[in-house]
Write a structure and sequence with these properties.
about 35% helix, alpha+beta, globular, five-stranded antiparallel sheet, 5 helices
Amino acid sequence: MKNTNEMEIIFDSYSSNEGFARVAVAAFMTQLNPTVEEVSDVKTAVSEAVTNAVIHGYESKIHKVSIRCKIEGQQFTVEVRDSGIGIENVEQAMTPLYTSKPELERSGMGFAFMEAFMDQVEVESELGKGTSVKMKKTIGKGRELWTTQSL
């Protein structure tokens, strides 16, 4: 039987809650004994997803953002959801340097960072109904090999 655990948090879409989201997710994943780098990767990806929900999904209006985390064995999954305006063209939105809000001097690298720091990123969106960003990362990948070879 695999070790499983889940949690969900729901919070207002204030940009100041982005830090709360990062810390809450990091605290939950500590049970997997992640490296500092793994924690940093997940925190960065969560930060980008929450920021997208606040700025793009809700256009800085105050609504709810939810984060669900799930642990199955060493697989860590985090899903950030909003019920905002949605993304018209997900493929275009995921293109590096693309931004729908150039007037805010956004870099357009949010999804690229998520993809760089996580093993898998899935984005589902429906106009007028919101967006879900589901990200997965295997914690401890490669550590077993290193400890076996170092003996």
